[in-house]
């Protein structure tokens, strides 16, 4: 039997532990796994593109456990009543190849994306960061806000989205939780005085949500929405003046903001900041940029964290996913041996 | 909600419809999908290798539906009480990226592997084939036997395995179903008078289960067990004198028997035989060889067939795998809006 966390139990877990606590705890798992980056089997995610969106598989393994995530990205989905991103994932035992854990990952991906953003900002944003500008108020926005409060200490948020209803939803969800929120009429207004700027929009196009004039010295850019070939958010020149941190270069060069740049554009693999092999922020004036596309190891950490958190509680159920006949060479007997099965 | 066929319901479906009927029906789906081969998004499967085995993801899409299979291969598993191969798979709607169907695929893979072998033999083995030699009596063997009876008309089986208990198991399972079974003391004995030779062993090594002396003119070789880098069953010279049919050359050249041969070793893509673009068997004396490794489209067909067969019956249950908030931009509300969920 495979342990299973469905949508309802994922919701119950989040209600039990709280979004902010979960993201904070997940950062510990992420840091643990990023520090042993070199032990992982790593490939760029395997994408099946269509005119409407993309379906991706994201496998990885540390040699003891294997994980993969199924995830779609369909920017036109919300207009039709569907989620832009839905996902589920699986952990497996490398030793015998059996799956051990399956979970919905639409909510879990929202948590892990915020946790990854917050982890990077914790290490490369200015230590005194208090105000975050958010461009984009979609599904991911509240998770980003809570992650940055829990991990980085952000209290003040300025926010802008082309969809005023989305901004109103963000305010409705976040104000009761104690944030100081300023709704802005455009990007120019939103970025004034920001220590951190998070861009998280979903349009599958080469956009310039943020231009060089929006980026003051010392700002940390958390660029989340550019995560697919042909899907970027930043004016390319922003990259020239920033120290750019990435997860897995072979994937980011195809999917991230740096797809706008040559193959040899200089980037820092973030895991090296954690191990001390590379520096993070070099000065108070430096612009730092996390070109986030989301990598398989992030999901590996998120699945492990969720699995450990729900273990032995009624938040996990069991699904019968692995046929296991008494004699392993006698699979056929399962098709005829009724009494032993029913 | 995602429609789900777990192990128990897969067993109930097989008991309802019968292995031989299911394989025969599945060949129709396979032929339908192989005929429109060019419409599919095709990549070699994505493998994560370890010293003990391999875990693979096998995605494909016809532009309307997407499928993937998770499958492991661990040759040393049976000695430890586990299945060599376990699997599960998913269908998804390409239009919005949502998963629609999930099924256990340990049993379903056994059915689809036999269906694929039988489909190819139906088109390239000699029409008067009646006797099959089987080398290997593991989990897959009974499914192969029933597939070849249902689709090709095989009644007489000679069988050999290094493990006499496995052979005894095969005889115990198959004799009641009306086969004429001859248990042989070695490969040399088993292949005498065979119209078709099926090799289906699991050792992860470059073996020579079959040598040139075993291959008489006119025989069809159904080589199933060589399906991983470093895992082959045939003496390389057998390939030189045979017309070799494969599924997807970029995958087979890495995983199949032809991994023993140069990159430009001539092969025929089997789907072209179905469309008439290539000939199958050219003479009664020609040796034909299906270098089967198993491709993602085979699983696409198998999942579609199973989904259609169980639709609307109590053989499918529903699992809650896709978070779907009322407002698609308000995923966060699911984490707080208890009353609407519970």
Structural features, described:
2 copies of one chain form a homodimer. Chain A has about 350 residues and is of the alpha/beta class. Chain A has 2 domains: about 1-105 and about 295-335, ornithine cyclodeaminase, domain 1, CATH 3.30.1780; about 125-295, NAD(P)-binding Rossmann-like Domain (Rossmann fold, 3-Layer(aba) Sandwich). Chain A is about 30% helix and about 25% strand. Chain A is built from 11 helices and 18 strands. The first copy, chain A, has helices at about 5-15, 20-35, 105-125, 140-150, 165-175, 185-190, 235-240, 250-255, 270-275, 295-310, 340; strands spanning about 1-5, 40, 45-50, 55-60, 65-75, 85-95, 100-105, 130-135, 155-160, 180-185, 195-200, 205-210, 220-225, 230-235, 240-245, 270, 285-290, 315-320. In chain A, the strands form 3 sheets. In chain A, strands 1, 2, 3, 4, 5, 6, 7 and 18 form an 8-stranded mixed β-sheet that branches. In chain A, a hairpin with a 4-residue loop joins strand 3 and strand 4. The interface between A and B is large, with 82 and 82 residues.
Secondary structure elements and their pairing?
2 copies of one chain form a homodimer.
Chain A: E1 2-5, H1 7-17, H2 19-35, E2 41-42, E3 46-49, E4 54-61, E5 65-73, E6 87-93, E7 99-104, H3 106-124, E8 131-135, H4 141-152, E9 156-160, H5 164-174, E10 180-183, H6 187-190, E11 196-199, E12 206-210, E13 220-223, E14 232-234, H7 236-240, E15 242-246, H8 249-255, E16 268-269, H9 270-275, E17 287-291, H10 296-310, E18 317-319, H11 338-341
Parallel strand pairs in A: 1-7, 8-9, 8-11, 9-10, 11-13, 12-14, 13-17, 15-16, 15-17
Antiparallel strand pairs in A: 1-18, 2-4, 3-4, 4-5, 5-6, 6-7
Helix pairs in contact in A: 2-3, 2-4, 2-10, 3-4, 3-10
